[in-house]
Each structure stands twice: as C-alpha cells, then as structure tokens.
Design brief:
homodimer, alpha+beta, Alpha-Beta Plaits, 4-stranded antiparallel sheet, 3 helices, globular
C-alpha cells in the first residue's frame, strides 16, 4: 500500500470558515476519486507536540493510484480554489506501508 | 482515536545506516509502549510529490495515550540517540480520526 501524508500550515488571515470549506472539499475526494482506499484528515488538536495546523493521511493500492489522485481534476480544482488561498506551508511524504 | 503524524528531513551527512538504525529503533516502540495502536513509518518513495525524507503515522486511543508515548523513556531515548544526530527538520500534527 502507498501512503500519502501531507501537513499544512495556514496563512495568518485564513479563517475558520476557509478551513471548513477546505475540509468539506476534502470530504468529497473519496467520492470523486475511486483510487482512494482511506482518507483521514483534520485540524491539529493543539496537544503541544505539533508545529503545523492540519493533517491528511491518504492510502492507495500503489504509486499509480496515488499519481491518479494527485493529477485528478477534482483534486487539482480543490487545491486551486480552496487550498492555495489559505496555505502558507506544505510538507509531504509518500511511503510504502 | 488520536493520530500523530510526523515528517522528518535529514541532515546532509545522515547516512543510510543512520536512517536504518532509527527505523530499527522505531520498530521497537510498539513493543515497549503499550498505548500504541498502530505505528507505520518509512522513507519517502521519491514519487515527486514530497519535500521531506521520512514519515511516521501513529494511532492511539486518545490524547492521554499519545502523551504517554511522547514522554515514554524508550521514546525519549530513541529521539536523543538515533533521531537528533540525523534530523534537520521535523513537522508534526496530532488530530482526531
């Protein structure tokens, strides 16, 4: 299985409703992109062990499934319209599990 | 469930054997720390969608379980002896799944 992990930090002027709109958009991805096997995301819980604002963990059968997700029009649209306006930083890794 | 995600990038002089020793140390954590429910880690697969070197995703029943892991002597020892010598950057988020 190929796992994609992404951590985001938000711009100072990103609002709660902006983040909620992005979360709502993420929730649509498994509906739109059949290669997604698992898709769990959410805001940081503020436990004192973090330095980013939001996490996404997505599982795929293989690297090809991840690539189809990465390039899918619904995913590209989400990034362009709901992520880019609010994101200040992104860290990501894909790894075999 | 409380999920902890950490992404690491390595110092330029971190060797493959250094990273393997850290991985071997991580593999011991679920043996030593009973609060861990799931623990999956590994090096970046170099698919072109990443900007860090290594990922860890760990699940716990709740925030208290994560905190016991974070403060566990075996975990602190791993960080001090096998992570700190090689890590150049760390990003982390804990979130409810």
């Amino acid at each position: 299985m190929l796992r994609h992990v992404a951590l985001f930090c938000w711009k100072l002027d990103a609002s709660e409703s902006d983040v909620r709109a992005f979360s709502d958009g993420l929730a649509e991805m498994p509906v739109q992109i059949p290669e997604i096997r698992s898709y769990r995301f959410g805001p940081d819980a503020s436990l004192g062990g973090s330095n980013d604002d939001f996490a996404l963990v997505a599982d795929f059968d293989d690297a090809a499934g991840y690539q189809r997700y990465a390039e899918h029009p619904a995913h590209r649209h989400l990034i362009a319209t709901l992520l880019m306006p609010i994101v200040a930083g992104r860290h990501a890794v894909q790894y075999e599990v």
